[in-house]
Amino acid sequence: QVQLVESGGGLVQAGGSLRLSCAASGRSFSLYVMGWFRQAPGKEREFVALSHWRGGTTYVADPVKGRFTISRDNAKNTVYLQMNSLKPEDTAVYYCAAAVDRTATMFSLSTKSGYDFWGQGTQVTVSQ
What average pLDDT values come out for the chain (128 residues) when binned by 10 residues? Predict the structure, then answer.
């Protein structure tokens, strides 16, 4: 089992920045990919970004590309999501997720089904 705990959410004005953190514990040595998703009210949970835990490869979804950056600190078992130039449409609950299946494809890792463990979520609200 892998436990994930997110932090760093809050209320920010449009154009502002926030940094989300996700700390992994438990069988963290089994981590393959860490990802961030978000879910706005009445909408499906959507992929935001991912980072391979050992190789360093990252991928950011088009709606946030150029504004959001994913990074990790392996020594702290923590992955971060730096969010800049925030917009009201970025308002959502942000979830951290972990994948341990090393055969997972990049396609599956951009969907919810590619992940095995989830955090509880942290609310991000961007005001006008």
Answer: 95 98 88 96 96 89 97 94 98 97 90 95 97
**How is residue 6 written in tokens?**
């997110």
- What is the spatial distance between Cα 99 and Cα 122, in angstroms, rounded to a whole number? 19
Question: Which one, of 17, 111, 112, lies nearest residue 64 by Cα?
Answer: 17
Q: Is 90 helix (H, G, I), strand (E, B) or coil?
A: helix
- CA 96 to CA 80: how far, in whole Å? 9
Residue 110 in contact with residue 61, Cβ under 8 Å?
yes
How far is 71 from 59, CA to CA, in rounded Å? 10
Look up residue 85 and give its DSSP letter.
Answer: S
**Residue appearing with tokens 């979804």:** 61
β-bridge pairing 10-13 and 2-7: unpaired
